Amino acid sequence: MIVWRDEGLMLSARRHGENDAIIGAFTAERGRIAAVVKGGAGRRLSAVLQTGDQIDLEWRARLDAHLGVARVEPVRARAGAIMGDAGALAALGSAAALLSAFLPEREAHPALYAATVALADVLASGSDWRRSYALWEMGLLADLGFGLDLSACAATGATTDLAWVSPKSGRAVSRAAGAPWADRLLPLPGFLIDGGDPARGEFVDAMRLTGWFIERRAAPALGLESPPQARARLAARFGA
Q: Is the pTM here over 0.85, yes or no?
């Protein structure tokens, strides 16, 4: 019998039979996992198995390749707070769907896990979550091997007045160097560099920027026809 214990973030839960549930969770040490939770469809446990909630779980299976059965306990509830903000709820759904679709099972992603927990906390706090979400998508791309390099201009090496991103290289381009090819480049929102909150329209540009690499690079590399619909719904909500 194989047994391990870890903390994780709930991604999904669906009914399995009359009383049980199959959950998807993003764990600190073992990455994305799936497991059967006995009684998970019941009133007590279904309240714990909400997307965005933090759980402690004990996983058991005869063989490591098996689906496994998990016993879960609540650590931190966030779903109730997030449900009061339709935009934050859409962002949570997008993040959970992207992780479920793009991460292989049982492969640790410690930096991405920490960033996801931090994003969930921001979404539950009621504060402006847009910058956190945009940076989270950039972190996801980096973990998948498609990270953007916004440190300097790909053409000149300049570190100031960066205004574009090359869709081919994923590297920043300065305003002057990119001007002749502006229609072929992706706008670079300033808040991704200066650390401020998004100005009007900047979050839309950020969603289009990361969305280009999610759709054109990450999804095809993983054999997916398109990103999850939850991500498309979030983008459409803001006109991206």
A: yes
